[in-house]
Amino acid sequence: MSEPTPVSRARLALLLGGLGVLVIVAGLGALFIGSASVPPRDVLAVLTGRVRGVDQVVVLSLRLPRILAALLAGGDGVLLHLVPFELAGAEPGDRLERVVERLMQPLAAAGNGN
């Protein structure tokens, strides 16, 4: 079997940067597109706090949480591959919530004065 060729840092940075831009574009697209008709100007006004009412509910209570949930769900598998299990005190098969819980335990103990 042949060994895989190493990926250069520049190529990896370009790939990750491109994926980051794609995530941002998709997130912005999801913020402006939906079944409820909210003009782009009103979406921006809601985000800056200048518009209240139905548009605010649609953007802040429906669209933004949907985008954040998608990012967290997609990041679940990525984070579990990036954080070494031994460092997090987790075991293979643990979900993101368990890994984060274990990583946050020292902070929670410090906050309680323990």
Could you characterize the architecture of this molecule?
- The chain has 114 residues and is mainly alpha-helical.
- It is built from five helices and no strands.
- The chain has helices at 9-32, 40-47, 54-82, 85-88, 96-111.
- The longest helix has 29 residues, at 54-82.
- It is flat.
- The model has no long low-confidence stretch (mean pLDDT 75).
Fill in the keyword field for this structure:
114 residues, mainly alpha, 2 domains, 5 helices, 71% helix
Blueprint of the fold:
Layout: H1 9-32, H2 40-47, H3 54-82, H4 85-88, H5 96-111
The total count of strands amounts to 0
The oligomeric status of these chains comes to single chain
Query: Which structural category fits the helices and strands?
Result: mainly alpha
The succession of helices and strands, N to C, reads HHHHH
The total tally of domains equals: 2
Shape: flat
The largest pleated sheet is described as: none
Distance between the termini: 53 Å
Approximately how much beta-strand content do the residues carry?
Answer: under 5%
Compute the average pLDDT.
Answer: 75
Unreliable runs: none
Helicity, in percent? over 70%
Radius of gyration: 20 Å
Instruction: Report the total helices.
Output: 5
